[in-house]
Design goal:
By secondary structure, the protein is of the alpha/beta class. The chain has two domains: 286 residues, Rossmann fold (3-Layer(aba) Sandwich); 202 residues, N-(1-d-carboxylethyl)-l-norvaline Dehydrogenase, domain 2. The protein has 21 helices and 13 strands. The strands form four sheets. Strands 6-3-2-7-8 form a five-stranded parallel β-sheet, with helices on both faces. A three-stranded mixed β-sheet has the order 5-4-11, with helices on both faces. A three-stranded mixed β-sheet has the order 9-12-13, with helices on one face. The longest helix is centred in the middle third of the chain and has 25 residues. The radius of gyration is 23 Å and the shape is globular. The chain binds D-mannonic acid (CS2). This is Mannitol dehydrogenase. Keywords: NAD, Oxidoreductase.
Length: 494
């Protein structure tokens, strides 16, 4: 196997696509926070395509790692050891695969080790976009009020002038310096999977700035663009066994290989006063109806994912395509999409929701992706309000069939106990549930789940029909199992 580096690129197997542009001429024009798998198989792939077109040498990526722990230290070492290159293997639903080496990242900075280097890069006039994949919870907004929390430890630390820890701290300090030096601001581009991601980033950054200096906050609000976008590509985790498999397949010794499906989509508002790479020429859809895409994706793809994960894990499945191979779960998803979701969504112009549904089910069935249900289950508390609440609200309002959603929430309650139908334990990671929520959950009255902070606003505990259906499923799960309860639901709604 060939150790991946700029020098070894020419000797890789001819089937591997490699950067054909002169990387030594590429300078960073994008600084990215959050170098997880999603960024590596999504935005970086599009930027790599742009760099293959002449005249775009100013649009390389500088990756910034904010955390300091053994994992991030190893990653920093890995990227340094392989000239910031990594491989991406893309698997089609029919099992065929191809590997490419992504050369878009030309600089990697480990912020805790050298914060000034990060600020220097951010204030360099050549930096014209700062992009983010810091996760949905990363924007630090209060679940109920939507207000930016100034008192979380890292934010409070950054506001008080300590050595910077957060993306907000770095971005606002860099914008302050640029303003002072008369350098035009960069665009802040969120690539996180949340609704109105640009508006969310604006809220977080302007609020953080307001915590420091009101005039600076106003200047940012007036002068910085925050385009919204809908991003989509399934990017599973790459545990060591998967890493070895990927490397065996490609013949490349890559310390940080990534994998993804062949499907990729990015619908982006063209809001870039500071300029942008030629995204429109490489498959990015530059449109002004991003919300329609966000709603479709969130309420169909992400909603189905989590609807599969809750009962799926309880039935003993751990992998997405295996869960979907269970006909009971397939039927649950299909019925949910056909009867609950699709009739209540106005899709983007020219997009067939029926075709979108077929594509989602096909994508989830892709065996090569081997995506983990526990990855999807992570932070379900944050995902249900975003991906299911609107459908629940509409079902309740228009007198629709609430049974699948009630069953789903009953499964969530069962899942929180961390043990499946077969008695196998699994890890529940729900950073958003407060102490108070856990006290309610431990109190032993199942309806209290609907009173925990994420669900409180929906008022479902006081909606007689919903509470009754939910209570019925909880009782049935306790008396029998998730499996039998699901079978009964499917029989009664056939
Ligand atoms: C998943 C997403 O974690 C989740 O909730 O549904 O990560 C999903 O894989 C991506 O949004 C696909 O683009």
């Amino acid at each position: 196997m060939k150790k991946l580096s700029q020098l070894s690129l020419g000797s890789l197997d001819a089937s591997i696509a490699i950067p054909k542009y002169d990387r030594s001429a590429v300078r960073p024009g994008i600084v990215h926070f959050g170098l997880g798998n999603f960024h590596r198989v999504h935005q970086a792939v599009y930027v790599d395509r742009c760099l293959h077109r002449p005249g775009n040498e100013g649009w390389g990526i500088c990756g910034v790692e904010l955390l300091d722990n053994p994992g991030t230290q190893a990653k920093a070492e890995a990227y340094r050891g392989q000239d910031c290159l990594y491989s991406v293997t893309e698997y089609a639903p029919d099992g065929s695969a191809s590997t490419r080496v992504i050369g878009a990242m030309v600089e990697y900075l480990h912020a805790p080790v050298d914060p000034e280097a990060v600020l220097a890069r951010l204030t360099n006039p050549g930096t014209r976009i700062v992009s983010l994949t810091i996760t949905e919870g990363g924007y630090n907004l209060d679940e109920t009020t939507g207000v930016f929390k100034l008192d979380t430890p890292d934010v409070a630390h950054d506001l008080s002038g300590g050595p910077l820890r957060t993306a907000f701290g770095y971005i606002v300090e860099a914008l302050r310096r640029r303003r002072g030096e008369g350098i035009a601001p960069f665009t802040v581009m969120s690539c996180d999977n949340l609704r109105h991601n640009g508006d969310t980033a604006r809220k977080a950054i302007v609020s953080f700035a307001r915590g420091k200096d009101a005039a600076l906050a106003d200047w940012i609000d007036a002068n910085v663009d925050f385009p919204n976008s809908m991003v989509d590509r399934i990017a599973p985790q790459v545990p060591p066994a998967a890493r070895d498999r990927l490397n065996q397949r490609s013949g490349i010794d890559d310390a940080v290989p990534a994998l993804g499906e062949t499907f990729i989509q990015w619908v982006l508002e063209d809001d870039f006063r500071a300029g942008r790479p030629p995204f429109g020429e490489v498959g990015v859809e530059l449109r002004n109806d991003v919300p329609a895409f966000e709603f479709m994706k969130g309420r169909m793809l992400n909603a189905s994912h989590i609807l599969l994960a809750m009962p799926g894990i309880m039935l003993g499945h751990r992998i997405v395509h295996e869960a979907l191979g269970d006909t009971r779960l397939y039927r649950l998803l299909e019925t949910f999409l056909d009867r609950d979701a699709i009739p209540r969504i106005e899709g983007p112009k020219g997009v067939s929701l029926e075709a979108y549904k077929k594509a989602v089910l096909e994508r989830f069935s892709n065996p090569a992706i081997n995506d983990q249900l526990l990855r999807i289950a992570f932070d379900t508390t944050a995902k249900i309000p975003v991906f299911h609440s609107r459908t629940i609200e509409m079902l309740v309002e228009d007198g629709g069939d609430i049974r699948r959603e009630a069953f789903f929430l009953a499964c969530f309650g069962a899942y929180l106990k961390g043990k499946d139908d077969k008695g196998e334990s699994f890890e529940v990671v729900e950073p958003r549930l407060t102490e108070n929520d856990w006290t309610l959950l431990r109190g032993g009255n199942p309806i209290d789940l609907l009173r925990t902070s994420p669900f409180e606003k929906l008022g479902l505990a006081d909606h007689a029909a919903f509470a009754k259906a939910y209570g019925g499923y909880v009782a049935s799960i306790q008396a029998t199992s998730v499996g039998q309860t699901l079978e009964a639901l499917l029989a009664e709604t056939a």
